[in-house]
From TrEMBL:
It is a multi-pass membrane protein. It holds the Pfam family DHHC. Its EC number is 2.3.1.225. Keywords: Acyltransferase, Membrane, Transferase, Transmembrane, Transmembrane helix. It comes from Plasmodium chabaudi chabaudi. PANTHER family: PALMITOYLTRANSFERASE (PTHR22883:SF203), ZINC FINGER DHHC DOMAIN CONTAINING PROTEIN (PTHR22883). The chain crosses the membrane at residues 32-54, 60-81, 151-177, 197-223. This is Palmitoyltransferase. GO terms for biological process: protein targeting to membrane. It is found in: Membrane. It is an enzyme of class 2 (transferase). The DHHC domain is required for palmitoyltransferase activity. GO terms for cellular component: endoplasmic reticulum; Golgi apparatus; membrane.
Length: 284
């Protein structure tokens, strides 16, 4: 049993099935980026509350409603993506038993999981074969595959909209503060005083923090829209890029995949042995 609570790096060493199998993103150890993403989300919400000072102006009430809906959607989708076990349904089914040729016809063989579906790949971090493997996501500490991919893309969409609304909130709050006293009055009412320097520092800090994560999210969302249009998985995209003589023909710049995908791990995965990744097809 894994006694570590947090991990700064994913363990990609080869393991036997009885050593460790990650059920989902809530299985210990938690990934540090998984915790970081949740904390940043909470910090952004806290910034919004502090800056607006719970203003009852109709403009801010509208923002509260939209932020509330988006926050609930993000938390629910995050939970779904993290909690789903994307394991191949055939994993370990044919371990320690004689397989009938008809049963395994068209399947692929994994040294750890046995015979699995053709599009399944073995994730060394989770130590299991994932059905229609897309990638292992450090932000949710779970593999993304057939069972949770649609929820993952929905989460990216919700996050993109959320970050856009944060930018809008910063802009509206800034201009309202220049022309009206509603924010100053609310600060005096809630905090006992108003400070221009502190107020605008908080807005700038929120804008920058939101901008950093907006860049990450929008590129990841854009990549997956592209992959969906091409009917490709992230794994297939990385393997194709690795095997392509002219990488520019793949359509997306290397910067995109470098900043939003654990490229080093995926390239390492792509270069693993045939038994571990390519899963040679069983001729029947």
């Amino acid at each position: 049993m894994n006694k570590k609570i947090f991990a700064f790096r994913d363990d990609t060493k080869s393991k036997e099935a009885d050593e460790f199998i990650r059920k989902n993103g809530f299985t210990l150890p938690f990934q540090i980026f998984q915790i970081l993403s949740f904390l940043i989300f909470i910090v952004i919400i806290a910034f919004i509350i502090c800056i607006s000072a719970l203003n009852t102006n109709p403009i801010f009430i509208t923002f509260y409603i939209f932020f509330g809906i988006l926050a609930i959607a993000i938390l629910v989708l995050s939970y779904i993506v993290t909690s789903i076990n994307p394991i191949d349904p055939l994993s370990f089914k044919y371990i320690n038993r004689i397989a009938n040729e008809e049963d395994i016809k068209g399947l692929y063989e994994c040294d750890i999981c046995g015979f699995v579906e053709p599009q399944s790949k073995h994730c060394k971090v989770c130590n299991k074969c994932v059905s229609v493997f897309d990638h292992h996501c450090m932000w949710v500490n779970n593999c993304i595959g057939k069972k949770n991919y649609k929820y993952f893309v929905s989460l990216l969409l919700a996050l993109t909209i959320f970050h856009c609304f944060v930018f809008l909130f910063c802009a509206v709050t800034f201009f309202v503060s220049l022309k009206h006293d509603t924010i100053k009055d609310q600060w005096n009412k809630l905090y006992g005083s108003y400070n221009d320097a502190l107020f605008y520092t908080l807005i700038c800090a929120l804008f920058v923090l939101n901008g950093i994560f907006f860049v990450l999210v929008i590129q990841l969302f854009g990549l997956h829209i592209y992959l969906i249009s091409k009917k490709m998985t992230t794994y297939e995209y990385i393997v194709n890029r690795s095997n392509s003589e002219d990488k520019e023909k793949m359509g997306i710049k290397t910067f995109f995949e470098w900043i939003i995908i654990d490229k080093k791990r995926l390239k390492k995965t792509a270069s693993q042995s045939e038994q571990d990744i390519e899963n040679p097809k069983v001729e029947a």
